[in-house]
Amino acid sequence: MALLDRAAQRLLERLHLKVRPRAASGEAGGHRSEARAHGLEFAERREYVTGDDARKIDWQAFARNRTLSVRTFEEERDARVFVLVDVSASMSRGTPPKLEVARQIAASFGFLGMNQVDRAQVIPFADTLERTTPILRRRDDYPALESFLGALAPHGATSFEATARTFLQRFPGRGYVVVVSDLMEAADWSPSLRSIAQRGNQICLVRVRCNEDHSPSFRGEVELQDAETGDVLRVTVTGALLEAYRAEIEAHVERTRDACRRVGGRLVEAPVEVPFDQLLRQVLAPALEHP
Q: Per-residue pLDDT tens for 153-189?
């Protein structure tokens, strides 16, 4: 089954990632840079000064007003689009499973990157980075991306700290970084998000969640096994305990949301129970602009 149907692809073809100039990679491509150079789009005229390239003189303007001026251009840069996908064991939960929805979200951002002639790369992670896709630049690369995502299976435990550290070592440039995860690792994500942003990256964190993440249905004496570590806990589940659990989950998500906001990024919710065509608009709307 295709991760993105034709309707989803047609929607994505009309949209454009909003990439801040400082997050562009510096190579010719589809995003405007703050730099002025001989680029793709006319920016302004300014008075000619000694030393300017004579090839840039606007001779038509000189014929009109007898004043030498040069044309400057707004250089366009491409963006490196990195999509980090959580494949830890907790992503197996939900109906449909969280990893299934994460695959579709990753495919959507990858499609956008390729559609803008950017450099897109999808990077699975659990306790660290795993095998990545090659650099994806053309729409012809999309079938290979679908095949790669379709082969991902949930396993292991999440360590976003180790993941972020390895990511910054292996990918020293800057770009648009999308992290797709259920955030079920209890550790503080703030330092890692800050480290990624300090490199000049723009961050979008997509939280894929299911109802049982917030509202487990079990009560009474139960034996719980951690999906990621395998640890077993015997506990008496009461209404008060469930309420305390929900409060802790919500506090963790809000801390992470605030951490994203402080570094100029954002956290977007992606409930798996929402139909994907609706979810796609909900998740991507803050990240996109019409060209």
A: 999 999 999 999 999 999 988 899 999 999 999 999 9
Second CATH level (architecture) for the domain 6-28+78-289:
3-Layer(aba) Sandwich (3.40)
Rg (CA), the chain: 23
Listed residue (142, 143, 122) closest to 133, CA to CA? 122
Evaluate if residue 40 carries a pLDDT over 60: no
Beta strands 41-47 and 69-86 are: antiparallel
DSSP single-letter state for residue 199: T
The structure's pTM equals: 0.78
* Residue located via tokens 């660290």: 128
Residue 245 burial class via C-beta count within 10 angstroms: exposed 0-12, middle 13-18, buried 19 and up: middle
CA 110-112-116 angle, 5° bins: 120
Buried b (16+ CB within 10 A) or exposed e, 259-279: bbeebebebbebbbeeebeeb
CB 7 within 8 A of CB 277: yes
Helix axes 190-198, 160-170, angle to 10 degrees: 10
Average pLDDT, the chain: 83
* Sequence spans of domains, the chain: 6-28+78-289, 30-76
